[in-house]
Amino acid sequence: MTDFNGRTILVTGAAGGIGSATVRQLATAGAKVIAAARTLESLAPLCEETGAQPLAFDLGSEEGIRDALEDLELWGIVNCAGFGGEIAKPQETDINVFDQVMSVNARGALLVIKHAVPSMIRQGNGGAIVNVSSQASLVALASHVSYGASKAALDSITRVSALELGRHNIRVNSVNPTVVMTEMSNFYWGRAEIGEPFLEQMPLGRWATVDEIAAPIVFLLSDAAAMITGVALPIDGGYTCR
Question: Is 188 a catalytic residue?
Fold first, then answer.
């Protein structure tokens, strides 16, 4: 049920931890993967390892996204590219950073959908889209106002897209991960005064791995999830069930 039989799937943010893990799992499952990031150089090791096709474009440019996607015949999309922005309370927020976070996490994902879906519809084979959101869209996390807002917007994009595209047999879902302890996240969540109280509130009490996020993404893309659309799936060790 998770054999993709050569279906072409685009993964944005493929140079990052969750993105690269998703590329590896999709390639293993038989998909033809297009791995996208801002630069081809950042993709070279992953594409050499997996056989994925590299693609570079800037999520801040609608023209660049359109040009990159217009000739592709995609069956699936994983919107994994993201920008964490800043750790700041609402009254301390740098609005320029807020705009950048919204531009990548919400606007960029919407533009990928906007310019990829017409070809998916024309092909008439259905398809699946997974947007990588966050637990920060489901519960309030201190000092995450920009990031949480962008991911809440992404979840709304997921629901509306699922509503609109279901008639074309194109499913759209979000995954909402907890913290994956990467080098980027360690600067904040790695602090004992931040990370320890957080984990104490999580039933499973540990950080997620990139493969634990990638596996549900692959499931939601697969025919095993053929009746699932419009959901925001927490992958959070139970944190949001509190």
Answer: no
